[in-house]
Amino acid sequence: MSYSAPSNWDEPELLDPAGAPVPEYGSGSLADLLPTLVAGQGVPGYTAAIAELTPADRNCVFLVDGMGWEQIKAHPDEAPYLNSLLATSRGGTGRPLTAGFPATTATSLASVGTGLPPARHGLPGYAVRNPDTGGLMNQLRWNPWTPPKAWQPYPTVFHEADAAGVATAQVSSPAFQTTPLTKVALSGGTFLGRLSGEERVDLTAERLAAGDRSLVYTYYSELDGAGHRHGVDSDAWRGQLMYVDRLVQRLAEQLPPRTALYVTADHGMVDVPFDEDSRIDFDEDWELGAGVALLGGEGRARHVYAVPGAEADVLTVWREVLGDRFWVASREEALELGWFGPPGECDERVLGRIGDVLAAARADVAITASVNEPNESGLAGMHGSMTAAEQLVPLLEVRT
Fold first, then answer.
1. 23-35 burial, b for 16+ CB within 10 Å, e for fewer?
2. Other beta carbons less than 10 A from residue 377's beta carbon
3. Mean of the pLDDT values across residues 331-359?
4. What is the SS3 assignment for 150?
5. What is the DSSP letter of 320?
6. Residue 330 — φ and ψ, nearest 5°?
7. Which distant-in-sequence residues (6+ apart) come within 8 Å of 227 by Cβ?
């Protein structure tokens, strides 16, 4: 009996961009959280988008950078208190929220603070093209400096809640008080800087009790840093998760009456192996670089800006080279599929910031840039895409 190889033996199956798990904008994304909470507090102009949540007079959001849903579930010994709350997530359904695309800090914090999806608030990635200058704008580090109000003109939910008489505060590291990202995403009410996690949660509890209606946001970033440097499979990351677990319990035990505490995150994380198959170096790959004027985004969620006239060719090449490991879409396809928000709701000023081609990783791989992004290319843990490990975030709840 003779053997015939399949006709597609040398042709890996390409991922269909329409098959990417799109965030639950409008019903279960980070952008829907604060509008739902302040609607329950009577702040005008907002509606309760996350139907599972019950209103509370005092609301607290504790956002832990990099603490994905999948990572909590995978570490019950390091995070016993957080795991004990898993069933409370999303109003007692035991389900997570979705971060939004890309699953990265600047995008997610803007979604949280404005209550808008990326296609509206206009921070659609780690580093994106500024149509006015033609260069990349790093939205996390706000480099090069760009007028914040022009870049993100919408008021924050914190600002609107404060104006409506809700006692509003952010408790975070003093280093974040004057940053442009804080200004465009998290400003409004009172900013209180405290260095240690214990100081932050203790002050958060105090501020919650300061008003009959209160909204307090607090933030912890060091878990994300440990994941980037050492990976989510490291002792350093596990040690940080243990510390976060204790902080959440400490805050929960101090909540004043009539309070709902929500513990969430801006994204999860994936460890990307340090080998050539897993880390595709754009700066060394002539094929991927052909027709590309600018590479934005980050390793697992790339914005690709083509030389004018080369958009279709770049899309074709990127699909042929990467399409079995990445969801690769044109800007138009990504917007129609709802990657950045509900279809048809992209602000005109945001269009040119989104790549002509988008590449979102499904496998544990990344597109690095060893020459132009030496620091980012050496990170052990990465995020940005729409896999469950990156996209799903908790909404753990404690009520008094």
1. bbbeebbbbbbbb
2. 19
3. 98
4. helix
5. H
6. -75, 165
7. 66, 234, 237, 269, 380, 381
